[in-house]
Every structure is written in structure tokens, then in C-alpha cells.
Design brief:
Elements: H1 11-32, H2 40-58, H3 63-76, H4 78-96, H5 99-108, H6 113-131, H7 134-151, H8 156-173, H9 178-187, H10 191-219, H11 226-239, H12 248-258, H13 263-281, H14 283-290, H15 296-309, E1 312-313, H16 319-324, E2 326-327, H17 334-352, H18 355-365, H19 370-387, H20 391-408, H21 413-427, H22 435-444, H23 448-451, H24 456-471, H25 484-493
Antiparallel strand pairs: 1-2
Helix pairs in contact: 1-2, 1-18, 2-17, 3-17, 4-13, 4-15, 5-7, 5-11, 6-7, 6-8, 6-10, 7-8, 7-22, 8-10, 9-20, 9-21, 10-21, 10-24, 12-13, 13-14, 13-15, 14-15, 17-22, 18-19, 18-20, 19-20, 19-21, 19-24, 20-21, 21-24
């Protein structure tokens, strides 16, 4: 538990660290451009955390409670960090085993630029709906789809946006998703009521997104050609033993996640299975990666291990294929881990002084009607995604803050749970220093601010939920004979 400040912060004190952070981040983007994530933004987060820490201490919170709050904030992100490291290893073993190249190889023979974005979004939506994990979806089929899209001449930001949109739609609507379970728990409703009610805003959002992607496909002038595709197919075929058996590896991972196996062991199995298939189907390539000849066992061990933790580059006669067939392994994720640690430090320092709650409570005061209350919830969730840098914080804290307000205004809890997901879950991936935004940018190799403008589902969702709120469309209220508090207790007991 974070020690309560002896003196409550005022709004001016609460926004000082946020102002410092936004100012420094803007300066870094202006001066460093895309390289701002290489270290300058991390320093900005730490300096802003220091400002928040000083304010917390001046409010009467001791240094030790501030430090404990930072440690607790970092601890809450540890599972995400470990998953991120395993995804790095998975990308490496799936590369040298031929899994990702096989996905690209067969995908190029099926898809064309006109329908590619729609297909990419739908495929990611289906996989994410089945697994309940946007992270696993992006790290597996997402990487392959990005490679296919680049080969077809599509811009990487547009392709990344379609992948993210589909993955987060499936994650948001899947009963297996952690955030889909967390949101109703915070609001006080049950899972399937939450999912059914969420469809009112989520389905129109994804339909609009698919229409936009289809329009882009029809009107874009993709630079890829049949000759380009053939050249890529030949380049992949020259370096890999491409076979349908390789698809057993992602199938195993997807089945495990559907069976509710936790993400960490499922991904670890995916890493090890990828390494095993690399030895079976690509032994010569594994030996080349190791750089060791004359001792097959030693070279296989070193080659597979290298793919898990280090950089692997498969060289072909095609320059673009060389870019596709490269992986940084676990070490390639360290810059993102660094960013997440700094972001969670800032969030912990802000929470220690109660600064986040002060800002959010001021927003609540502005909410007079139902529409403005829902809009305030959306803005609060977005605020926590930016400042606390974690989607779970963006669901849990606003959920606790707004639950009583929704009940006192006669609004059923599914109104709140839907709004939490429509804003907290989907906007997290649009923030470069958020755990989600940093992770997906690292996994795809596409900067957050490059794919974010094309992540139409993630952009439309919060506006859709606000629109529904202001229109009063299908807003659920308690009946006159219902007691909100009693119903809340009944849901929690269940």
C-alpha cells in the first residue's frame, strides 16, 4: 500500500510532472526524431519521475514510501517484461526454423494489395479472438503479415495499423483476454454481459475500420509487382526448406493459449518448438548461424541459442528479403524493457503523491450528464495510459474511481466496463512509452507513431463510446425497483 500524503496535492502541483514530461518528450521528438526512443525519452521519464517524487516528499510522503510505490509499479509490469523477452526469443527461433518465412512464402501466393489490409486485420482479429492475446497475435502472424505487406509494396505504417486494429479487436472481445476479464471485475458486472454490451460500440468500430482499409487497398498504388513477389519467393526458397509442417509450431502455441495455458509457458513452448524445428528442417542454416563447422551438436546448440538471445541475419540475393529475415532475439527487446522500466518509475512516483487521483478527480467534477461522464471516463483512461504507462492501471484506477459515480447516477456497471475497454485497452498501444505501445513497436519493428495514425479501430473506439454516450443510445439504467448497491454486492459475490 502507498502511504497517503500528509497534505493533499492541488491541481497545479499534480500537473507539474505531467507538464515537464510532455515538454521533454516533445523536445526529444523534435531534436532526435525516431531516435528519441533510444534513450532521450527514457531520461525524460526518469527526470519527470524525480519531479513527481520531490512533490510527493514535500506533501509529507517519505522517501521510502515513494521508492516502494515505484518498486510496486515496476513489479506490476514484470510479467509483461518477461513476455516481451520471450517474444524476442520466439521471433529468433521462428526465423531460423523457417516458420515466419513459410508464412510469408505462402501468404504472398494468396494475398494481393487490394484486399491485403482487410485480410490482415481479419486474420489478426480471428487469431486474437481465439487466443485472447493481442501480444501473441502480433508476435506471430503479425510479423509474417508485415513482411507480406512490405513485399506487396504497402507502407509499413498502414500494415502495422491493420495488424494492431485486428489484434486489439480480438483481444477486446475474447472471453480469454485478461483485460476483458479485468474491466467487468472493476466495474462490478459479469464477463458475458460485458462482452455483449461492448459489441454495441466495438462491432461498428471494426466495420468502419475494415471499410477504410478496403478503400486504401482500392485506391493505393502499391509499388510491388509480380516480379517483386517472385523474387522474394525465390530468395526464401533458396535459404529455407519451406514446408507446411512448419505451421505445427504456431498451431501448438495457439492451441495452448485457447486451452487457457498462461502466456509465459505457452510462449516458452513456442520458443523451444521453434528451435527443435530449426534443427529438423533447417540444419544447414543453423550451422551457418553458429559459425561452427565439424561438430554438429555444438554448432546446433550455439546456433539455436544465438537465435534466442542475439542478432540473426539471413543473407540472400534480395536486399528487402534480408531486412525481413533478421531478428534481434531477446537482446533486441532490451531497449523496450528500458523504456518500460522508466515509464513505470514515473507512474509509481505520480501515484505515491496521489497526483494521478487529483487530476482525475478534477475531470469527474466536469461530468454533469451521462454523455460527459462517459467522455470523462474515456479521457481519464487515456490520461492514465499516458502517465502511468500501463493499460492495467488505465483500467483499474479509473474503474475504482468512477464505479460509485456511475451507480449514484443510476447507470448499470456494464456502461462503465465497456467504456474502460473502449478507451483503456485500445489506446494503450498508441502511446510510445506505454508497455503496449513500446512492445508492439519493438516486435513489429515499426515505430508507434508510424503505425498509430493507421490503427483505425483503436482510434475510433473511444470516440464511438463517447458518441453512444452523448446520443443516449442503449445506455442501461437501473429500474426504479432495483437497488444499485445490492446488485453490486450480488455481482461481486458471484
Amino acid at each position: 500500500m502507498t502511504e497517503q500524503p500528509a497534505t493533499s496535492a492541488n491541481l497545479f502541483q499534480a500537473i507539474i510532472p505531467v507538464f515537464v514530461l510532455i515538454s521533454m518528450l516533445g523536445t526529444n521528438v523534435y531534436l532526435f526524431g525516431s531516435a528519441s526512443l533510444d534513450g532521450s525519452n527514457q531520461i525524460a521519464l526518469l527526470l519527470s519521475a524525480a519531479v513527481a517524487g520531490v512533490i510527493a516528499i514535500r506533501l509529507g510522503v517519505g522517501w521510502r514510501p515513494v521508492l516502494n510505490s515505484i518498486v510496486n509499479s515496476i513489479s506490476s509490469a514484470m510479467s509483461s517484461i518477461i513476455i516481451l523477452l520471450l517474444i524476442g526469443s520466439l521471433a529468433g527461433t521462428w526465423l531460423i526454423s523457417g516458420v515466419v518465412p513459410a508464412m510469408i512464402y505462402y501468404g504472398l501466393q494468396i494475398l494481393n494489395p487490394t484486399i491485403f489490409l482487410v485480410a490482415a486485420c481479419v486474420v489478426c482479429a480471428v487469431v486474437s479472438l481465439a487466443t485472447g492475446s493481442s501480444w501473441s497475435t502480433v508476435a506471430t502472424v503479425g510479423i509474417a503479415l508485415l513482411g507480406i505487406g512490405q513485399t506487396l509494396g504497402m507502407q509499413e505504417g498502414v500494415v502495422g495499423g491493420a495488424i494492431i486494429s485486428g489484434a486489439y479487436f480480438g483481444d477486446k472481445m475474447s472471453p480469454l483476454s485478461d483485460t476483458t476479464n479485468l474491466a467487468p471485475a472493476m466495474a462490478g458486472t459479469d464477463l458475458f454481459t460485458h462482452i455483449k454490451y461492448m459489441a454495441i460500440t466495438t462491432v461498428p468500430s471494426i466495420i468502419i475500420s475494415l471499410i477504410i482499409y478496403l478503400a486504401i487497398g482500392f485506391f493505393s498504388e502499391a509499388k510491388g509487382s509480380v516480379n517483386d513477389v517472385e523474387a522474394v519467393l525465390l530468395a526464401i526458397d533458396s535459404r529455407f526448406n519451406v514446408t507446411g509442417w512448419l505451421f505445427l509450431v504456431p498451431a501448438v502455441v495457439i492451441v495452448m493459449i485457447i486451452k487457457r495455458v498462461p502466456a509465459l509457458p505457452a510462449l516458452l513452448v513456442g520458443v523451444l518448438t521453434g528451435g527443435l524445428f530449426a534443427v529438423i528442417f533447417q540444419p544447414e542454416l543453423v550451422v551457418q548461424v553458429s559459425g561452427i563447422e565439424g561438430n554438429f551438436i555444438k554448432s546446433v546448440y550455439v546456433g539455436v541459442m544465438q537465435s534466442m538471445y542475439g542478432t540473426v541475419e539471413i543473407i540472400t540475393d534480395h536486399a528487402m528479403v534480408n531486412d525481413l529475415l533478421s531478428s534481434g532475439g531477446m537482446s533486441g527487446m532490451m531497449n523496450t524493457v528500458w523504456l518500460i522500466l522508466c515509464a513505470m518509475t514515473f507512474g509509481g512516483a505520480m501515484e505515491a503523491g496521489g497526483l494521478l487521483k487529483v487530476i482525475a478527480s478534477e475531470v469527474i467534477k466536469l461530468a454533469k450528464g451521462t454523455g460527459s461522464l462517459i467522455a470523462s471516463t474515456v479521457l481519464t483512461c487515456g490520461f492514465f495510459n499516458i502517465t502511468a504507462s500501463d493499460q492495467y492501471m488505465a483500467i483499474v484506477v479509473p474503474g475504482r474511481m468512477y464505479a460509485d459515480t456511475y451507480r449514484s447516477r443510476g447507470l448499470k456497471p456494464e456502461n462503465l466496463s465497456r467504456t474502460l475497454e473502449d478507451s483503456g485497452t485500445v489506446t494503450s498501444v498508441l502511446v510510445p512509452w506505454n508497455t503496449c505501445g513500446a512492445t508492439q513497436a519493438s516486435v513489429l519493428g515499426v515505430a508507434t507513431l508510424v503505425y498509430a495514425p493507421f490503427s483505425f479501430f483503436n482510434i475510433i473506439s473511444p470516440f464511438m463510446t463517447m458518441l453512444v454516450g452523448f446520443l443516449g443510445y442503449k445506455i442501461r439504467y437501473y429500474e426504479p425497483d432495483e437497488e444499485p448497491d445490492e446488485l453490486q454486492e450480488e455481482v461481486l459475490v458471484k
